[in-house]
Design goal:
By secondary structure, the protein is an alpha+beta fold. The protein contains 8 helices and 20 strands. The strands form 4 sheets. Strands 6-7-5-15-16-17-14-18 form an 8-stranded mixed β-sheet. A 6-stranded mixed β-sheet has the order 9-2-1-13-20-19, covered by helices on one side. A 3-stranded antiparallel β-sheet has the order 3-8-4. It is globular and about 65 Å long. It starts with 19 loop residues before the first strand and ends in a 17-residue tail after the last helix. It binds flavin-adenine dinucleotide (FAD). The site of flavin-adenine dinucleotide has 40 residues, from helix 1, strand 2, strand 3, strand 14 and strand 18. Flavin-adenine dinucleotide binds next to helix 1, strand 2, strand 3, strand 14 and strand 18.
Length: about 400
């Protein structure tokens, strides 16, 4: 199914006073827009690009989803609700979005498995699965090797397998939600850029490069552009430390692609060493190679990021992480992509409104936000239109260590 967002030039100019203005229509913004439109409100969504696009954080074929969220127990209600919402969206649209092919987390014996702000991401995942009664299996190296001989193990590995984990298709999720938002009456303007906002005695005023708005409320879901935007016009906003980083996705050719098809191979996160950075993750072959990636720390500017991936980057990723760990995944690169993380300390989210009439700011990335975006959007729509913050979002207010 091809769903296109209307190009800006054929759109009707919307009212300048929507009940809710959603700025940024990536993962978080498109879900917010769709749910707000479903509540019968007059909603307008704007984006500087034409989503789904490859400039931000929401592209590259697949995103991992898992219920036992090792980043912290307070994310579990978000992902549980999101799984329900993805299924509802699939029923409504006929599009396939969420594939529960199973997910395997591997760690190195008894050692630490540092990831996303947790010293032992593996132990934390198992603990959360037990506490929240999430169906899972704990496996030793022999059991993993028997079930998935694709993994080349040393013998001391331990595994956590979750059948409901799997992957989401980010571009399709955005397209379907934007199409559904329009069907419910939302207006969308692409190619329009937020420049500034202010709160005065009449409430919130938002200015873009094309118009000035007096919305009832606004949600800013601008992803990696948030730090720059707050620097330019967020005077008075207490901002937590944020870092935007360039991430690279690599698709390598499998010698026997069928062995890596989703019927035979799960999504995986492999903490293969105890030092930071000794981790990578991957997906089944969806027809264009086995996608794998690790996480990079170096800060970047979303306006200046190098989009090209040089061959040395893919060769290094393969040599350090894949070689000797995934049988039959060659170093032949089929495709690459760059993508942006917006990182907060402890891999947390920041979803907050600091002034009663001010915009609600939603930064839900830190490398793991996509899986939660359906529920976050639903809750943001409620917050923007009803005025009070839903409990689901309470753990993410104030951000980690406001600066
Ligand atoms: C390589 C990579 C791998 C990831 N893997 C996973 C994973 O496996 N599982 C998972 O759950 N999460 C994962 N994530 C995280 C997840 O993808 C992000 O949390 C999520 O996509 C963030 O969505 P967003 O809506 O905040 O940002 P975006 O999707 O980037 O949306 C922001 C939007 O705002 C628009 N915008 C910016 N500035 C302006 C402006 N001034 N005016 C108007 N519009 C503006 C942009 O054009 C953009 O469309 C990954 C991220 C990356 C980069």
């Amino acid at each position: 199914m091809v769903i296109a967002v209307c190009p800006a030039k054929v759109q009707v100019v919307p009212a300048q006073t929507p009940d809710l203005l959603v700025v940024g229509l990536g993962a978080v913004g498109c879900a917010t827009l769709m749910h707000a439109a479903g509540r019968g409100a007059r909603v307008l969504g704007i984006d500087r690009h034409l989503p789904p696009h490859h400039h931000g954080s929401t592209h590259g074929e697949s995103r991992i989803t898992r219920l036992a969220v090792g980043e912290g127990a307070d994310y579990v209600p978000l992902v549980r609700r999101s799984h329900q919402l993805w299924r509802e969206l699939e029923d409504a649209s006929g599009e396939s979005l969420y594939h529960a092919c199973g997910g395997l987390l591997l760690a190195n014996g008894d050692g630490d498995s540092p990831m996303h702000g947790q010293a032992s991401f593996f132990d934390q995942t198992v603990r959360i699965a037990r506490d929240h009664r999430i169906v899972h299996q704990c496996l030793d190296a022999r059991e993993i090797a028997t079930r998935w001989p694709q993994f080349q193990l040393r013998g001391h590995e331990r595994g956590y397998f979750e059948p409901e984990a799997g992957y989401l298709r980010p571009e399709a999720c955005v397209s379907v939600q934007l199409a559904e938002a329009q069907r419910r009456g939302a207006q969308i303007r692409s190619g329009e850029r937020l420049q500034r906002w202010r709160v005065d005695q009449r409430g919130l005023q938002v200015e873009t490069d094309r118009a000035s708005y007096r919305p009832g409320a606004a949600v800013l879901a601008v992803g990696a552009w948030l730090p720059g935007l707050l620097g330019d016009c967020g005077a008075g906003t207490r901002v937590p430390p944020m870092k935007v980083t360039r991430q690279v996705l690599h698709w390598f050719a499998a010698e026997k692609p069928a062995e890596y098809a989703q019927e035979h191979f799960p999504i995986f996160i492999w903490c293969w060493g105890s030092a930071p950075g000794q981790v990578y993750y991957g997906f089944p072959d969806l027809g264009g190679g086995v996608k794998v990636a690790t996480e990079h720390d170096a800060p970047c500017d979303p306006e200046l990021i190098e989009r090209r991936v040089n061959t040395a980057e893919s060769a290094a990723l393969h040599a350090v992480h894949v070689a000797g760990r995934l049988r039959g995944v060659s170093d032949r690169v089929l495709r690459t992509a760059t993508c942006l993380y917006t990182e907060l300390p402890g891999a947390r989210f920041w979803i907050d409104r600091q002034e009663s009439s001010g915009p609600i700011i939603a930064s839900a990335c830190s490398g793991h936000g996509f899986k939660h975006s359906a529920a976050i959007g639903e809750a943001l729509a409620e917050w923007g239109l009803a005025g009070s913050r839903p409990d689901l979002l309470a753990p993410f207010a104030n951000g980690p260590r406001l600066g």
